[in-house]
UniProtKB/TrEMBL annotation:
<keyword id="KW-0547">Nucleotide-binding</keyword>
<dbReference type="GO" id="GO:0007189">
    <property type="term" value="P:adenylate cyclase-activating G protein-coupled receptor signaling pathway"/>
</dbReference>
<dbReference type="InterPro" id="IPR032628">
    <property type="entry name" value="AC_N"/>
</dbReference>
<protein>
    <submittedName>
        <fullName>Adenylate cyclase type 5</fullName>
    </submittedName>
</protein>
<keyword id="KW-0812">Transmembrane</keyword>
<feature type="transmembrane region" description="Helical">
    <location>
        <begin position="17"/>
        <end position="36"/>
    </location>
</feature>
<keyword id="KW-0472">Membrane</keyword>
<dbReference type="GO" id="GO:0000166">
    <property type="term" value="F:nucleotide binding"/>
</dbReference>
<dbReference type="Pfam" id="PF16214">
    <property type="entry name" value="AC_N"/>
</dbReference>
<feature type="transmembrane region" description="Helical">
    <location>
        <begin position="42"/>
        <end position="60"/>
    </location>
</feature>
<feature type="domain" description="Adenylate cyclase N-terminal">
    <location>
        <begin position="1"/>
        <end position="96"/>
    </location>
</feature>
<keyword id="KW-1133">Transmembrane helix</keyword>
<feature type="transmembrane region" description="Helical">
    <location>
        <begin position="67"/>
        <end position="85"/>
    </location>
</feature>
<dbReference type="GO" id="GO:0005886">
    <property type="term" value="C:plasma membrane"/>
</dbReference>
<keyword id="KW-0456">Lyase</keyword>
<dbReference type="GO" id="GO:0004016">
    <property type="term" value="F:adenylate cyclase activity"/>
</dbReference>
Length: 123
């Protein structure tokens, strides 16, 4: 990219196109990077997403609207792919429901512990 940008024939107008092309490449890398890893995990690639959003906001000379839209798109892609690839994971839904009803994952563990003891008749 640096070699391409330092040529005499490279105009300033082309820099905008190069930046938007780089955002498109980042989107593709994000999707591929989230679909490939095995074993799968709901938190896989979160640091990529954060790093890419930070890089787009701070280092690319694009309009703020484009930076915000690409950040929202990267976040939405990460969320959608993580939910889709981990749809069979029964503990993901349990964690969500437990945090919603109990307020934290520690309360979920205590709640599940109580349920086991109640079923066994120890409480």
């Amino acid at each position: 990219m640096a070699v391409l940008c330092n040529r005499a024939a490279f105009h300033q107008d082309h820099m905008g196109l190069a930046c938007y092309a780089l955002i498109a490449v980042v989107l593709v890398v994000q999707v591929v990077g989230l679909l490939l890893p095995q074993p799968r995990s709901a938190s896989e690639g979160i640091w990529w997403t954060v790093f890419f959003i930070y890089t787009i906001y701070t280092l690319l000379p694009v309009r703020m609207r484009a930076a915000v839209l690409s950040g929202v798109l990267l976040s939405a892609l990460h969320l959608a792919i993580a939910l889709h690839t981990n749809a069979q994971d029964q503990f993901l839904l349990k964690q969500h429901q437990g945090q919603k009803h109990q307020g934290s994952s520690a309360a979920l563990v205590l709640h599940e512990d109580r349920e086991k003891h109640v079923k066994l008749g120890s409480i």
